């Protein structure tokens, strides 16, 4: 999912980019400092989402969004501003979301989750299907592929564990060298008499081993 940041303050643009990187699944295609540049970059870069400051030099964010609602209605506009009083006017131009500075990761996550549901594609009997990332319970490395289990089935996908963890850090935690699990699905952790540690995942039939270095982080999620 491609996004563009528009803000005349460099530090504000950097903060948004850092937070978007933490969310995973989003690709920055540019940054704009004023309204006219926003219009140019939307034409050139074709972003899916525009994170737009309202108070910019020259053409302000409301004016930019009004023009884009006609020329590029497919672009989801999320206003990012220090002025909460602009909220009502912002939604009059069909804003997809509104964030007040300083933006927090929880706010951004909530807005983006409404706009974008990341999916993994897989093949089944020659047919391409997909599953929401949020439905994947377990992912394990399997030779050149990754074996995933989700609510209602399982499949093999081309993406590596490294890719999944880098792009969806809010969804997955690595519990072992070859295994990722859904953070929100961790039910319990148990220490074995043999010295090992196993974790129980809601909706998954088997307990999974947890490496020593991952035990502390897994416990923090229970």
Provide tags for this entry.
single chain, 222 residues, alpha/beta, 5-stranded parallel sheet, 5-stranded antiparallel sheet, 7 helices, 15 strands
Walk me through the structure.
- This protein has 222 residues and is of the alpha/beta class.
- It contains 7 helices and 15 strands.
- The chain has a 5-stranded parallel beta sheet, with helices on both faces.
- Helix 1 links the parallel strand 1 and strand 2.
- Helix 2 packs parallel to helix 3.
- The longest helix is centred in the N-terminal third of the chain and has 14 residues.
- It starts with a strand and ends with a helix.
- The relative contact order is 0.10.
- The model has no long low-confidence stretch (mean pLDDT 90).
Brief summary:
With 222 residues, this protein is α/β, with parallel strands linked by helices.
How are the elements arranged and paired?
Elements: E1 2-6, H1 10-23, E2 27-32, H2 35-45, E3 49-52, H3 61-71, E4 76-81, H4 87-91, E5 97-100, H5 105-115, E6 119-124, E7 127-132, E8 136-142, E9 145-150, E10 153-157, H6 161-167, E11 172-176, E12 179-182, E13 186-191, E14 197-201, E15 208-210, H7 215-219
Parallel strand pairs: 1-2, 1-3, 3-4, 4-5
Antiparallel strand pairs: 6-7, 8-9, 8-12, 9-10, 11-12, 13-14, 14-15
Helix pairs in contact: 2-3
């Amino acid at each position: 999912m491609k996004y563009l940041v528009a803000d005349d303050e460099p530090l504000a643009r950097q903060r948004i980019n850092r937070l978007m990187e933490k969310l995973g699944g989003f690709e920055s295609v540019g940054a704009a400092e004023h309204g006219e540049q926003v219009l140019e970059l939307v034409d050139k870069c074709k972003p899916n989402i525009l994170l737009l400051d309202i108070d910019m030099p020259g053409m302000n964010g409301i004016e930019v969004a009004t023009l884009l609602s006609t020329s590029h209605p497919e672009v989801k506009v999320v206003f990012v501003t220090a002025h909460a009083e602009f909220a009502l006017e912002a939604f009059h131009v069909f804003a997809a979301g509104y964030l007040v500075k300083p933006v927090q990761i929880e706010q951004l996550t909530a807005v983006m989750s409404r706009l974008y549901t990341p999916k993994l594609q897989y093949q089944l009997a020659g047919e391409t299907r997909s599953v929401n990332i949020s439905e994947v319970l377990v992912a394990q490395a399997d030779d050149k592929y990754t074996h995933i289990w989700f609510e209602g089935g399982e499949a093999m996908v081309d993406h590596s564990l490294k890719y999944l963890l880098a792009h969806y850090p809010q969804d997955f935690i690595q519990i072992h060298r070859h295994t990722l699990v859904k953070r929100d699905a961790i039910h319990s952790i148990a220490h074995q008499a043999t010295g090992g540690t196993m974790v129980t995942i809601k909706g998954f039939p088997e307990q999974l081993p947890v490496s020593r270095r991952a035990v502390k982080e897994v416990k923090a999620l229970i």
